[in-house]
Known about the structure:
The complex is a heterodimer.
Chain A: E1 6-9, H1 18-31, E2 35-38, H2 51-63, E3 67-71, H3 79-89, E4 95-98, H4 101-107, E5 113-115, H5 124-132, E6 135-139, H6 146-155, E7 161-175, H7 179-183, E8 202-205, E9 211-216, E10 219-227, H8 232-237, E11 242-245, H9 252-268, H10 272-281, E12 287-288
Helix pairs in contact in A: 1-9, 3-4, 9-10
Chain B: E1 10-14, H1 18-26, E2 31-35, H2 52-64, E3 68-73, H3 82-95, E4 99-102, H4 105-114, E5 120-122, H5 131-141, E6 145-147, H6 154-162, E7 167-174, E8 179-184, H7 186-191, H8 195-198, E9 207-212, E10 215-220, E11 223-228, E12 243-246, E13 255-256, E14 263-265, H9 270-276, E15 280-283, H10 290-309, H11 318-325, E16 333-334
Parallel strand pairs in B: 1-2, 1-15, 2-3, 3-4, 4-5, 5-6, 6-7, 7-15, 14-16
Antiparallel strand pairs in B: 7-14, 9-10, 10-11, 12-13
Amino acid sequence: MRARIRLTLGPILYYWPRARVFAFYEEMAHARPDVIYLGETVCSRRRELRADDWLDLARELAANGSQVVLSSQVLLESEPDVKAMRRLAENGEFLVEANDMGAVRVLQARTAFVAGASLNVFNAQSLQLLGELGAVRWVVAPEISAAELAPIQAARAPGMQTEVLAYGRVPLAYSARCFTARHFRLQKDLCEFRCLQQEQGLRLRTREAEPFLVLNGIQTLSDHVHNLVGALPQLRDLGVDLLRISPQAQHTARILQLFRAALEGAAGGADSSAIREEVRALMPAQACNGFWHGLAGMDEAAA
Amino acid sequence: MPSPAAHKVELVCPAGSLPALRLAVDNGADCVYVGFRDQTNARNFAGLNFDDAALREGLHYAHRAQAQVFLALNTYPQADSWPRWTRAVDRAAELGVDAIIMADPALMAYARRTHPQLRLHLSVQGSATNHEAINFYHDHFGITRAVLPRVLALPQIRHVIANTPVAIEVFGFGGLCVMVEGRCALSAYATGVSPNCDGACSPAKAVRWEQTETGMEARLNSILIDRFAPQERAGYPTLCKGRFAVDGSVDGEPYYAFEEPASLNAMDLLPELVRAGVRAIKIEGRQRSPAYVAQVTRVWRQALDACLADVDGFHVAPAWTHALAQQSEGENVTLGAYDRPWK
């Protein structure tokens, strides 16, 4: 019999004030997801928490019973970026999610690691290769569909854990430019840390007012909320080991509870349609799941 | 006193067809890069690219003129189509291309194992923006060259070069991705077609033009990317080049939320790039016409020769700028991330 699917909490993608980050993780300590990913993955200018603050937080959350993983920055441009990544990779205490091949190079042969979603693993052969270098878990790139995932799952090495983004706005793109600073007509290096005032980024609409994307500094997110609560049986059949909930500004603890209930529901007979409806009601935008169904990501197919 | 550059810098030019390849070679390209006619490369457009016969002929033509031919195999194979990509590697080796440009680690491993004599370059689609990442591909697959994503500033390029044995190639001219190549799923989100897996961004088949009372509308899979007033030049609706409005902003006017439509022309920075130790300058545009390839190659050949002969005395001739401006998509050119006015 297969082990139960575990719930993970992805890193906070937005830039929240220090006190808010601590308050958020205090709440998460109560919600106690199986795994918590910590750290700043988007922008090196975001320093409300320093490396040591993240480590302290990691220790507290680990002592509380969650597995803690430190996530590395996705876009490494400067030597300070590389140095910060190296310090993270060499922390010696916590598992690290490598979000760039540079991080893989530092981690390989040193310690086990998690292969992040931005590593562009699109086939079983690349997964195999990362496994040989020490990856014990991989986070599936959001653009991979269930049909594309199936053969990779079938071929994966024993012990390789698969994690799928199950809820949240999808990270779609990274740039050297900061689109939040651009919006406020500020230079990137003199950005006044405007992201601090956008608890869920800047929502972008088309010229006919349709919500489309979200600007989050140098990162672009989907406007629509990727939601696989309706695909749990399929995820289980595919042998997915972990489902990621990506923190949103509101209701993250409740979303974790609902996913947990939905996962247990299959066994315990909980009313899954009520759960699905509540998940939907708590979203900051309309739902999507197109990537999972092999469609345009922003589409929504019936589960 | 002229100060010749200490090293050779190659001019790498695009070709989407045999006529374009010939013109690139005739006009002084050191290397021409091409792709097969399918989704194994990042310019998977209808009517473009090479079958085996055309590539064989192109190789013959280029090699006779001492020019090299690189093959782009720079998309990510998926499980069901893996054999198509490995077969493409085999074809490239059998035909005798001078190097293949790749992004997928496992495909590089395959090429290394199966054709150890074949030179491997890391594609810009590999998203390697730092020396640790580039050295990763060097350690494992023996890549000899890496193409940098168009997001790095000059000091960062210098730093990368100082910390890797891998030769560095940078883009000098052509279309510009504002997002890190290989780390952009915007097109996949809006249309289901992705540069990573399908070799195309904002694909033509998803584009719809419509003249309305408020202007010419350009849609991508029904999403309004931009609307152009009668006097405005209506650009192709590449997703990140559209105009959008930010919710709740004081002036809720639509604007170019990502970047003004502009193409890259880094010719002003050529001496800096040469001094930095860049080993090759790449021209974007396999999807462009043979006339574009001929014109841009000719101008860049002249500029690069002038720069390599006297790097300190180099300046851009007005005639070059004029000739290149005619080939740019849209009226504006930019130095891109190399020189960061927005930093």
